[in-house]
Amino acid sequence: MTFFRDSPRKIKGATTMPYAINHVHIRAADPHATAAWYEKYFEAKKVSEREVMPGTVTIGMEVGGPTRLNVSSKPVGSSDDRAVAELNRLGLEHFGFHVEDLAAEMARFEAAGIRVVLPLTEVVGGTKLAYIEGPDDVLIELVQPAE
After folding, report:
1. DSSP assignments along the chain, one per residue
2. Roughly how many angstroms between the first and final C-alpha of the chain, as a whole number?
3. Hey, what's the torsion of the CAs at 82, 86, 88, 93, to 10 degrees?
4. What is the pLDDT of residue 41?
5. Looking at residue 146, what is its pLDDT?
6. pLDDT at res. 26
7. What does the CA dihedral 78, 102, 109, 135 come to, rounded to 10 degrees?
8. What pLDDT score does 99 carry?
9. Which residues, other chains included, contact 57 with Cβ-Cβ below 8 Å and sequence gap of 6+?
10. How do the domains of the chain map onto residue ranges?
11. How far apart, in whole angstroms, are the C-alpha atoms of residue 58 and residue 48?
């Protein structure tokens, strides 16, 4: 079975650029135990383990489709129970959407008065990302892969 990884599916009749879920990211007290649970119950496959933020571990997993599941440890000093949209909280942290032009998307969100949690940032390798606050305090990541 083949799934797309590099670009989202085109949505017939769409008037804006196409969107696709990039990943779901979960903060866990014990990321290895959480990853093992997803392996056991959802046949997830561990494809990476790395330190993304100092002192944390992020386990990347594929779960039968184009959407990746990331499970990470909680950074020291981050919130245990804060309910507002915030990076590094426990539980479901954020959903990520693939975008083709992050600068244009951020301009559109800012013009609409949507709260920007993390402005457009380019990370090592050229990937661009940003975070906005969605309805119900949901944290949403926007990802423009490196060219």
Report:
1. -----SSPPPPTT-SS---EEEEEEEE-SSHHHHHHHHHHHH--EEEEEE-SSTT--EEEEE-SSS-EEEEEPPPTT--SS--SS-TT-SEEEEEEEE-S-HHHHHHHHHHTTPPEEEEEEEPTTS-EEEEEE-GGG-EEEEEE---
2. 25
3. 90
4. 67
5. 94
6. 81
7. -50
8. 87
9. 31, 32, 49, 50, 51, 72, 73
10. 20-144
11. 8
Q: Tokens 């975008």 belong to which residue?
A: 99
- Looking at the chain, the whole-number percentage of residues with pLDDT higher than 90 is 32
Distance between CA 83 and CA 144 in Å, rounded?
A: 27
> How much is the pTM?
0.57
The two structure tokens encoding residue 38: 């997803």
Residue 36 has pLDDT above 50, yes or no: yes
Q: Do residues 94 and 131 lie in contact, with contact meaning Cβ atoms separated by under 8 Å?
A: yes
Contact present, 77 and 30 (Cβ < 8 Å): no
Give the phi and the psi of residue 83 in degrees, each rounded to 5: -90, -10
Tens digits of per-residue pLDDT, 66-84? 889 899 998 887 776 655 5
What fold does the segment set 20-144 form as a domain?
2,3-Dihydroxybiphenyl 1,2-Dioxygenase; domain 1 (3.10.180)
